[in-house]
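Person: I keep going back and forth on a fold encoding question. Show me how you would write down a chain together with its backbone fold. Please set it down just below, with no commentary around it:
Helper:
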Amino acid sequence: MQLPMTTANRKQARSYRRGRTRRVRSGSERRQGRRRTPGRRSGFRAFQGGSRPLFQDVYDWAGKIRTVRMSKCGNPFCFPENIDNQAKLLFGQLKKDKFLAGLEVKKFADKATHFLSELNVIHAFREGNGRTQLSFFLLLADQAGHPIDLEDLDPEAFLNAMIASFHGDEAPLAALIQALIENQPV
């Protein structure tokens, strides 16, 4: 089931573009006050909790796991009845991997890429998955000793790399993450 281009929101924005501008503005303002590391609470519930502050002014259901099936460009995301289990498995592996701390840059980029691509396939929320994933990833990278400056991020290249990873090609995203860590132009 695909959602319409507009979604009911608290700001009563009638167009998708207008609503997106408001989401980005209020979300980025909140995100700036949220630069704490994932720490021990880095499981799926912590990730879920990270979505609410970004979107609570826009959606009543911000931070809640989606209950509808979704796809994008004909590609289905994880069915809602499987989200909780798949997310627990993914975050359980992240915990086993010690939240990717202490890894050299290439190994970190490879493992972080796999984590992000799997998290994207899970697609836990109706709206705001990419921004919530990016916020969590930035905190994870920072805690793992690989801080990333968003000023160096090319949004279009990142989106294209995430789409490629959805289809099983993780190499572009891994290269992009490695370049961001090494402060190389992307």
About this structure: The helical segments are 16-32, 44-55, 80-96, 105-122, 129-143, 155-166, 171-181. The longest strand covers residues 71-72. Strands lie at 71-72, 75-76.
